[in-house]
Amino acid sequence: MAGPQADVNDAIASVLGELPGISSLKNEQTEVLKAFLDGKDVLALLPTGFGKSLIYQIAPLVSRKLGRQNPIVVVVSPLTALIEDQIREATRIGVTATHLGDDNQRAGIINGEFQLVFGSPERFICQEQWRDMLSSTVYEENLLAVVVDEVHVTYKWGLTKDPQKQAFREAFSRLGELRSLTKEGTPILALTASAELQSTKKVEILCVISEVFDDIENIDEVLGDYPWGLSVEEEQEAFDYNFAGYFDEGLVLNVVDDIDNVEEYDYEED
Predict the structure, then answer these.
(1) pLDDT of res. 118
(2) Which of 23, 53, 251, 264 is most buried, taking the most CB atoms under 10 A from its CB?
(3) Pairing relation of β-strands 72-76 and 116-119?
(4) Average pLDDT score over residue span 182-202
(5) Domains (ranges, CATH) in the chain?
């Protein structure tokens, strides 16, 4: 008799067989997908172009193959342009997707008619109608997971070192409130590109992530060899050298601490 893992593998294979132009997943994509479908919090550090978005885009499809009737994934994303790109990609592979800024889809979003629901943290955290939605019966029964995309900006934009100044986007520091708004046990999938994350501990605290899925057993040893305290240019060069082998395959871990020179992003208002 096939076990749960065999069932998940079969469901993933079945979904991939129905998607246009996608025949297989990378091992890391599969591991992350299976972990958070199993209800685990996942912090995934995967290089740009690795296919991070595909993981959550197909999650509702795989979940339906496993017997869930109407799985919904909520995606918190920092930029309107990124949201629009992800909606186009999801629609292309047959996933229903929309965002909280589309007033024409407001009723459909609230009624749980979309498999992917995108929005900025300001909308999910600061607007009462969307907070109420996450706590509604529809979402309590059907919410599969919460995804925080580009998670490195949670502390970069959500926190400030100067108590006299307001954070650039303070709502990022309040993402932990999603825990109280959603059903207990709803997993969080936090995604970013490897070289952009400064501190996983900050991410875990801000997003209230616990028991992070980690498939890198020797990463502490690798980080122990890293030459901290260099200039920005020297540190970036050393970081690239020390972690080049891991960048090629992607990382899923929760132990990186204090990496500087984070890439800047343009901010577009919703």
Answers:
(1) 97
(2) 251
(3) parallel
(4) 72
(5) 4-252 (3.40.50.300)
